[in-house]
Amino acid sequence: PPYSYATLIRYAIENSPNQKLTLSQIYDWVIEHYPYYATAGPGWKNSIRHNLSLNKCFVRTPRPVTEPGKGSYWKVD
Fold first, then answer.
1. What is the DSSP secondary-structure string of 1-69?
2. Which domain does 9 fall in, by range?
3. What pLDDT is attached to residue 67?
4. Whose C-alpha in 3, 12, 50, 67 is 20 to 30 A from the C-alpha of 57?
5. Which are the contacts of 22, defined by CB distance < 8 A and separation ≥ 6?
6. What is the structure's pLDDT at 64?
7. In Å, what is the CA distance from 24 to each residue of 27, 71?
8. Which residues are CB-contacts of 21 (< 8 A; sequence separation ≥ 6)?
9. Where residue 28 sits, what CATH number does that domain have?
């Protein structure tokens, strides 16, 4: 894909119904829209995590108590 990981993450979050996604949901969106990543090996997932952690435009928000599950949500700031 001709996009940076940060761009892929932004597209995934901005195209979600609530403008927020968990890490797992971001992975799923990327694979659904760019099937290349389904067979690309695990390295791209490290790059996604790296971009979420270091890029200041992505903000981690806690999962509400009313929504049980694993992981926080990520939003675009």
1. --S-HHHHHHHHHHTSTTS-B-HHHHHHHHHHH-GGGGSS-THHHHHHHHHHHH-TTEEEEPPPTTS-S
2. 5-76
3. 86
4. 67
5. 63, 69, 70, 71, 72, 73, 74
6. 87
7. 5, 8
8. 12, 13, 29, 73, 74
9. 1.10.10.10
pTM exceeds 0.85 for this model: yes
Exposed (0-12), middle (13-18) or buried (19+): which is 67, by Cβ within 10 Å? exposed
What is the Cα Rg of the chain in Å?
12
pLDDT given for residue 6 in this prediction = 97
The partner residues of 24 in beta bridges, in order of sequence, read none
Q: Which is more confident, 29 or 42? A: 29
Domain count, the chain: 1
pLDDT tens readout for residues 35-77: 999 999 999 999 999 999 999 999 999 988 888 888 899 999 9
